[in-house]
Every structure is written in structure tokens, then in C-alpha cells.
Amino acid sequence: MWRKVLVLTLAVVLVGVAGFGQVKNPDTMIYLPFGSPESLDPHYAYDTSSSQVIFNTYDSLIRYDHSRIDAFLPMISLEVPTVENGLIRDGGKTIEFPLREGVKFHSGNTLTPEDVAWSIKRGILFDRSAGPMKLLIEALSGAEYYGIRDWFEGFSGMAWSDAVTQDRMVKSAEAREKLIAFYNEVVDPIVTVEGNSVVFHLNRSYGPFLFQITHYSSWASIIDSQWAIANGAWDGKADGWWRWNDLHPTETPLHTKVAGSGPYKLVEWDQGNQRIVLERFEDYWQGPAPMKNVIIWGVDEFSTRKAMLLAGDADLINVPNQFIDQFKNIPGIRAVTGFPLASVTNIHMNWGVDPVSEYLGSGKLDGRGIPPDFFTDIHVRRAIIHLINYDAYMEDVLSGLGKMVPTDMPEGYLGYDDTLPKASFNLALAERELKQAWDGKLWEVGFVMPALYNTGNMMRQTGAEMLKVYMESLNPKFKVNVIGLQWATYLAAGNNNLLPLFFIGWSSDYPDPHDFIFTYYHSQGTYSEWRGEPYRQFLRENTDALIEEALFEPDFDRRAELYRTVQEIVIENVVASPLYMPTGIQVMRDWVDGWWYHPMRSPELEFFFLSK
Amino acid sequence: MTAFIIRRLFLLPVVLFGVTLLLFTMVWSLGSDRLISLYISTPEAMKSADAKQRLIEKYGLDQPAIIQYGKWVGNVLRGDLGYSMSSHQPVLEGLLARLPYTLELTIFSLIPVIFVGIWLGVKSGVHHNRPLDQGIRIFAIVGWSLPDFVFGLLILMLFYSQLGWFPPGLYSLATEQAMRMDNWTHYTRMVTFDAILNWRWDIFLDGIRHLVAPVLTLAYLWWAFLLRVTRSSMLDVLSKDYIRTARAKGLSEKVVINKHARRNALIPVITVAGHMVVQLMAGVVIVETIFTRPGIGTFSARAAQQLDYFAIIGFAFFFSLILVIGNLIVDISYALIDPRIRLS
User: 3-state DSSP call for residue A12?
Assistant: First the structure.
């Protein structure tokens, strides 16, 4: 009896196996990244997995011209605003977008200028903590504010916490009045509808504005306001807007739904399975996409992604840099490498570490640690940047997928100049600098110094280990401790000014030099916070004014000149210490057609252009 | 028996309270500076000066652990285990959505683990110290020694990459499309069981096809364990007087082994197998990851990696619940199987 059952079971399984062998999916494009979206709400999302879906389901006013970052094409707007065509006026403060007619949302509703205005205003008012809307708020407020709450406080003179409770309820009649006035006088006039155009009114001309609202800036997606309001999003009114501020993902109807007009509609987001299923939008204004279905499936294990690609069950996969060699010369597989990415990883030297930091050792120049202001000495900084073998690093650690840049700004950005001096590997120079550091005392007494990185990041770890090897080879009294910290600990230590020397990077939100130059070289930039008061004081005295001037300068050539000057200053003073600019990789089956990279999108994909 | 069950059920809230309070205190002792990393995956998120403070206030990270715990307990009583930032959905919803996948894998793994494990254990015991026994023991030691991620990847490479037989995931594209049709009903969220209930044998086979590789991986690792328990128990029983008596009565060796020895040898094995169900459910993290099966194992692993504290505590709460109830069922079944045992 049991034998019969066993035989029958085996037969059933084998029939199943035979019946499902070699499944082809000619109508479906399958992409395997890792992870899954944080949220599908364009005003909440601030991660690449979410953007991947938003790029394909929502449209924006304009888009980049193919792979370029310095030229645009119209999208929902009929024209790209320029001074020449009269759509940028008032010295860059007024920007008009005449809209395309007859564009349909997935719901069947027609896209109107009111949808565009609502989308922008809803995003500003939404402004979730540590979310993306700070970018647009910065642009629209003339770089005076980075958050709606600060903006309200600046306008009304009332603290947000005095106006609105933690549960987003208004605290008093006075607060309500001020909140409503803020909307009516500040937010509402920012975007107006004029005929079939939307017009932005900026406080000041803002250099990177067009980058902020172009496609791939997911926060500037155009949302079907009629659908969204009907499903519980902000109702478009001044009274009560604060109830939609800083929502939790579960509180926004757009978290798991899509209300866009893009080439694909959302069929399903299976959060457990990390699987997004998209279906072609037949009424797309540019015509239907070539592929009927798209599956974006977060497969966390690289070996599984690779196996599925080799078996033909996936068309494109995400491949970490260190595994790229595994895809060379495999029939049927195409690996594209070397295209630029808008990111830089760097060595940071903190000029004023909090003396309580456990990473300072003795905290003195006594051979058992380093003093908090160790890196204020330019000789130490110069030595550090000579102790990385950059060529070997690019070739062996990055598998050739990286490039050295002069400062902490990617290649191709406005003001980027490849002829500026770059850091170089030179042990003799490093030794000479270290002998001069701290008036010669450093060479005599030695030191114990940490080189910190976040655990799991092999590139940063190897950079730290390389620094250790070469530094310790110079003098037996020099000791470098390579320390890996979990991301939570690393972040906390960085924010609290506890890290003396550490490796970290920055990825671009928009391809304007301001995004990098401000972050690194302005006294209020994110990383200035991590590098101590003496560092910020240096920036206040040397670069802040130049960076602020460049931000509001409408003339591109002048802007480029200003950014070049900033770079010269930071190179001369060894404020800049880039390790590498990564270059991208994309691995796919050779039957995939239409793929092209864009520094602001890659490794994400725009499926409208793909076919097989 | 009833009193025993009631007593054990009364213990449940105490266990849950102890586990969650301990975890909550441990997590909260990390401090707001570390807890905040859950909400900031990249430095870019810190661009606005007030981002950190807003997050701390929004999520109450600066409040004492006991206050946060009190809030959490209040929410749990309303059926809300918090929001998981790592899986991007409410914790309870996430766990319930993933439980069927883990349960399905566990059920299908148990079948070969128990039947093959016991069968091999009996054979090994009967052929004590003979070549068959030695061979089975080597087979067991290899299985017990193999790291699951190594064996799993080998299985994946062989049966999927090379032979193309058993793909990862839950189902094929065709099945996915079929399951979105109006005539498909999700009864259990377990592909194979739903396929049977929907009377779709093609989908059942597809589900089985996607289960073979992870089941084989889990089964081989657990065969060794059950085999050794069965073998020891079998050797113990075979040395008993009643076995000698049965043989002296002239019963055939087949009857002695099958009717007298094996049945008695299985009592401790059943207890172990009961606990194994719970252990299997807990131990599927790696297998689920390799074979891209979105169960509670991958849920908890991802939560731990990202310090997703509500998900970690929610998972512990949920799993403690399963553990206590699972152990209770094992104890009861043990008493039912062996009348000599009294639950007191």
C-alpha cells in the first residue's frame, strides 16, 4: 500500500516537473533587486526601492534628456522652461510649465494643472521627518528652510510644538489662525494655476530648481488629486492641513496604492514576498509600453538572484561590485560596467572630536591615543591622503568599478574639473608630512588612532585596512585600529561628534554641485556636523559665502567658477579627502533591449524603454 | 488533564509579559541615538537640521522604557503590535501574512523528516554496528555537520541552476496569474492547500515543485537528529525483556520489530518530533532566504538586521505564543499516547 502511494507521489511530482520546465515569459520583464520599497507614496519615499516603482508609475513635469544630467526634455509640461522661451522670468523667481492636454491617470481621470499644484502643495505640507520634501522646501523657500515646521515658525513666530500636538491636533484658536494664514500667505501662492499652465513662484532664484522637479526626483511626481482626496489624502483646504503633516505610512492612502499617470499601473505589492507586479497602462500618453507586465522582486540572497538570471527566470538582476567577475564571458548574459554614478565615498577627518569619545584612546599626544583636535594639523591630513594606494584600490577592491575624483563631488557636475589636483599614493611624502606634524612631536611619540567604518561595507573596511598597513609601515610607534561599527552605532557616534577618522559616502538627490558642495564644505552641511567645531569655523571663514553665492547665481558660468574656487580651497587645505567615485554595473540577459543608464536613476530601471 | 491545560494557559500571559518586557528593556537601553537608525538608512536623510529631533519626538524615543512599554501593551491589547519599518507594514499584518508560508514549509518538511528519519533510525537500530548502521550514521553525521546555507546553496545550484527542476520562490508566473483570477479563493494562503481547495492540481504541482528544494534542505539537516533519537530508543527497547519474550515465543523478526519494538521505541520520538515542529519553524531563516520564501524567518532576520524593534518584539511575542501552545500540545499528546504518564 505505502509503496503504491510513494510511487504515485513520485509520479505526480515528476509529471509536474516535466510540465513546468523551461517556462518563457515573453510578455513579462522580471527584475531582481534586493529589499523592498519603504512606501509607494512619492512624498514619503526616500529610498531607491520605492523610487524604482514611482519612476515607472508616475510622471513629472520634465525629464532628463536620456543619460545626460545637464539637459531636459518635456514630459507632462509641453516645454522645458528657459529664460529664452520666456518661461523662466523675474530673474529666475517665476517658472511656468504649460501642460500637455488629454493625459490620463490610471483611474481614468484627466490630469489637470490643479493636480500638479495639489501634488506640490500636498508634498510640502506632508513633509515627513527625515523624508525627501526638505529638498523641495529648500528650493521653494529660497534655501531659508528645510522643513515645513521651521517655515511655519519663521512665518508665525510661534513654535510648532505650541501650535500642534503630537497627535496633530491644533492647540488653540490663535494657533489655528496662524496655521491657516501660513497656508494662505506662504504655501498656496507658491504654485498657481494660470490657464493650462502651472506657475512656480520662488522666494529667490534657486540654481538647482529644475533638478528638483524633474523625473527621478520622486517627490515631484504628479498625483491624481481627485482619487487621492477621495481616499483620505489632504483635502486641499487651508483649515486643517496640519492633520496631514508627517503622516505614518499606514495613514496615507498612497502608501500601498498608486495614483499616477505613468506607463505602468500597480497590480500588486506583496510586501511579504517583496514582490511588485506592474501592468502596462494602455492609455499612456506616449503610447503603451513594449512589455505587458513587469515584476520587481526583492531577492535578498545574491546566489539566488544569480541562479535565476542564469536559468532565464529573471531578465535583470542587481549585482554587488565584488561579484561582477562572475558574469564575464557567460553566454546569454550581458554585463555593462563603468558608467558614472552620482555618489562619492570619502575619508573624513574630524577636527574637533568630542573629548568624551572612546575612540580617542588617551585623548593626548602621548603615543597611546590622539588629541581631539588631532586633524587640525594640516600635515596629518596631508599624510593621510597619501597613504591610500588609489590605483590598487580601484583595481583590486572595486574590480575597476571606481574612479578617483579631485574633491567630494562626482564627475560631470557643474564646476567639476578633472585637471584639479587629486590625492596620490606617496609614502615618502606621507613620511615627510608626519615628521612635520605637531612640530615634530608626533614622529617622536607616535599615536594610536582609529579608522572607523560601518560593518558590512567591505569597500570602506578595505580602505581603512589599507590606511593601517601603510601608516604602520612608516613608524613602529604609529598604530591604527580598524574598527567596524553597526550602522546604528555608527550613525549615533557620527551625529554625536565621536568619530575621529571614518569612512562614509554621499549619494546625490539631484545632479547639482550644491548637493555635494553644501553637504561637505558648508558649515551647515550634514557632514560638517560630524567633523567638529574647528572644521565648521574654517568653512565659515573660507567657503560658506562662496557656496551661498553660487546657490542663487543664475549664470551657469559664474556658478561653475564659484564651485571651482571652493574646490581649490578645500584641496589646498586638505578639507577634501575623497576615496572614490563608484561607477555602475548592470547585469542582464542579452535578450533585454533598450537599457541605458542614468546617474540619477541607476541601478533602478525605467521599464517603458525596455523590451525583449 | 483539564486542570493541567488551564494551569498552562494561565502561565501564557506571564511568559509573554516576561519575554516582551525583557526585550523592550534591552532594546530601549540602547538609547535614542541608536534606535533612531531604524528611521535613517542613509546619511542623506539627516540633511535637515531638525530631522533627528523630529524623529525622536515622533516615535517617543526619548521617553523612558517603562512608559513606552505601557503604551505598547495598551496597543497590543487592541491588536496592534506596532509598525515594522523593515517590512513596511504593521507587525501583526506582516507576521500573519508570512505565517502560512513558514507553516507550509514546516508541514511539508515534517513529512520526510519524520517518516524517513524514523525509518532510518529503526533500520540503524535493528542493524546495530553492521555496515548498514555505519552507513546510516555517516549519512546522519554529514547532514548534522553541514551548515544549512552551504547545503541549501548546493541544492539550489544542482537542482535549479544545473537541472532546472526546482526553482526558488513560492510559485511560477503562470500560477501567480491564475491566483489573481476571480475564480481563485485564498483559503489558507498556503499555495498547495489552496490549490487543493480550489481544485487546481496544476497549481498544486507547481507549489510542490517550489517546495522540493527547501524541504530537502531542511529534511536532510533534521533527519540526522531524529534518526539518532530513534536509533537510541530502538536500541533501548530491543534490549528489554518483553522483546526477548516475543522472540522466545517464536514470533518472526519482522513482527517483533514492527509490532513490539518499533511501537514502543516511538514514544520518546513523538515527543521530540513535537518540539521539532516548533524548532523547525524557528530555524527556517536561512532556508527561506536562500529559496526566497517570505516566511516569518526572513521577517525576523530582516528586523534584527535593521534594529526594527517593534518587529523584533512582535516576533518574540508571537513566537512565544506559538512555543507555549506548541509545547502544551506536545505534553498533552504525550500523555494521550502513553497512559502511564499523568499530567500533574
Answer: helix
Contact (CB<8Å) B54/A268? no
Q: How far is CA A215 from CA A58, A130, B230, B236, B245, in A?
A: 9, 21, 64, 73, 85
Contacts with B205 from chain A: Cβ below 8 Å: 12-13, 15-16, 19-20
Q: For residue B261, is pLDDT > 70? A: yes
Quote the CA–CA distance of A213 and B217 in Å, as a whole number.
50
Rounded CA gap, A543 and A434, in Å?
A: 27
Residue A18: predicted pLDDT: 41
Q: Which letter, b or e, does each residue of B107-117 get, where b requires 16 or more Cβ atoms within 10 Å of its Cβ?
A: bbbbebbbebb
Chain B residues in contact with A150 (beta carbon < 8 A) = 48, 50
User: To the nearest whole angstrom, how far is the Cα of B145 from the nearest Cα of chain A?
Assistant: 22
Of B83, B98, B206, the CB nearest to A248: B83
Please, which residues 299-328 of chain B have a Cβ atom closer than 8 Å to chain A? 299, 302, 307
CA distance A457 to A286: 41
Domain A343-576: what homologous superfamily?
Dipeptide-binding Protein; Domain 3 (3.10.105.10)
Model confidence at B40: pLDDT above 90: no
How much is the pTM?
A: 0.84
Task: Please check whether residue A489 is in contact with residue A481, taking contact to mean a CB–CB distance below 8 angstroms.
Answer: no
Residue B95 C-alpha cell reads as 507576521
Q: Say if A267 is an interface residue toward chain B (CB within 8 Å).
A: yes
Question: Quick one: CA torsion of B72, B74, B78, B84, rounded to 10 degrees?
Answer: -10
Domains, chain B, in order of start with CATH, read: 2-90 (no CATH), 92-343 (1.10.3720.10)
pLDDT tier at B338, thresholds 50, 70, 90: low
Task: Specify the CATH number of the domain A3-35+263-340+584-609.
Answer: 3.40.190.10
Question: What are A198-255's pLDDT values in tens digits?
Answer: 999 998 888 889 999 999 999 999 999 999 999 999 999 999 999 999 998 889 999 9
* Distances from the Cα of A78 to the Cα of A61, A63, A83, angstroms: 8, 11, 16
Coil vs helix vs strand at A585: strand
CB of B166 less than 8 A from some CB of A: yes
User: What is the Cα–Cα distance from A523 to B20, expressed in whole angstroms?
Assistant: 44
Q: Hey, are the CB atoms on B47 and A268 less than 8 Å from each other?
A: no
Alpha helices (runs of H) in chain B, residue ranges in sequence order: 2-28, 32-35, 51-58, 65-77, 91-126, 131-145, 148-156, 173-179, 191-197, 201-238, 241-248, 253-255, 262-282, 285-290, 296-305, 309-337
End-to-end CA distance of chain B: 8
Selecting from B31, B44, B54 the residue whose C-beta is nearest the C-beta of A506 gives B44
Q: Which 244-303 residues of chain B touch chain A by CB within 8 A?
A: 289-292, 294, 298-299, 302
Q: How many CB atoms lie within 10 A of CB B337?
A: 12
Comma-separated ranges of CATH 3.10.105.10 domains in chain A: 343-576
Yes or no: say if A53 and A317 are a contact pair by the CB < 8 Å rule.
no
Task: For an interface test with A, give the residue of B87, B88, B173 to mutate (most A CBs within 10 A).
Answer: B88
* A528 → chain B, closest CA residue: B47
Pull the grid cell for residue A229: 482626496
Q: Rounded to whole angstroms, how far apart are CA atoms A255 and A296?
A: 17
Mean pLDDT of the region A457-474: 94
**Interchain CB contact of B79 with A (< 8 Å):** no
pLDDT for residue B342? 57
Residue intervals in chain A for CATH 3.90.76.10: 48-251
Residues 19 to 38 of B: which have CB under 8 A from any A CB?
Answer: 30-31, 33-38
Looking at the domain that runs over A48-251, which CATH code has it been given? 3.90.76.10
